[in-house]
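[audit] Reproducing an earlier prediction to check determinism. Same input, same settings, fresh worker. If the tokens differ from the archived copy the diff job will pick it up downstream; this log only records the rerun itself.
[audit] input (333 residues):
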Amino acid sequence: MYYRTLTFLGRAEQLEAFHEKKAAMDLDGKEVSKEEIVRPRVPLEACLASFSGGEEVPEFYSTALNSKTTAIKTTGLKTFPDYLVLQMRKFVMGEGWVPKKLDVYIDVPDIIDISHMRSNGVQPGEELLPEGASCGNKAEPARPVADEDIVSQLANIGFNYFACQKAAINTSNAGLEEAMNWLLSHTQDPDINEPISQDPMPAEDTIDEASLQTLVSFGFPEDVSRMALKASGGNIERATEWVFSHPEASSSVSADSSTNNVKDDDSHISDGSGRYKLMAFVSHMGTSTHCGHYVAHILKDGRWTIFNDNKVAASVDLPKDMGYLYFFQRISS
């Protein structure tokens, strides 16, 4: 995320002092009161800039060059929907693979303008990459290579080096967490610690059809379910967690499906200005992912109302900066 240096200079000093105080109190077995907690503040526009800004993609295979190169990926919106939902990534994997809540404030204005995030398609001087490789002499598919960074991190934990290589390859180098899940699901494999065979590339891992149908019955797309089962070593519980922690996979499949079915006919999709008004948000009350409670605030009849299970009341001190999900309605031009 991007921070405004001048604005947050004083805040950074407060945070440093708070963390020193908290560390000292933890040693004494004391807890910091709610009134003493100092949280970082991040403007929503910084989150949007991070989301839509350029991201370097190393080892990107270009079908135009027929080789790997470094690409720059940006994210934009083709149309602006009537309703916009923004999810703040406030839960991450901490040390020891323990889910951790990011305790930060998000400064969210009542009105936002995301017009700058509209994608303008192919620009002058640009051209779309061909969908397949060129029709020349096709090279034999390269043998998959394990990401050495993932392998070394797993090996440092204490796993066998060859097992770490297999974990990285069988999860398509998706990341440390995916490789770890695969390892934990294959520790009993008789050849788990044996060197990788140099024979021609083996066929792709088979997916258990029963497990696949179970995930599909949960409402997940079949393609996403296959990716999840492969990344989790066939474990349904871990595969479910993988789907929820990789929303971009579902978005990608949905986009592909929409493209195939609609055939670029977007006439039925609503579109308009990029100005939105905040209408509701959901926040999490609690210190971690293992405990707490979700409540909703909704702008109803011109005033904010809190919905806490079956309790409904007017909101006096609106915790707008502690939301997890924000709901916006497009403002008509």
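[audit] rerun output stored. Observation attached for the diff report: The domain at 148-261 is CATH 1.10.8.10 (Helicase, Ruva Protein; domain 3).
[audit] end
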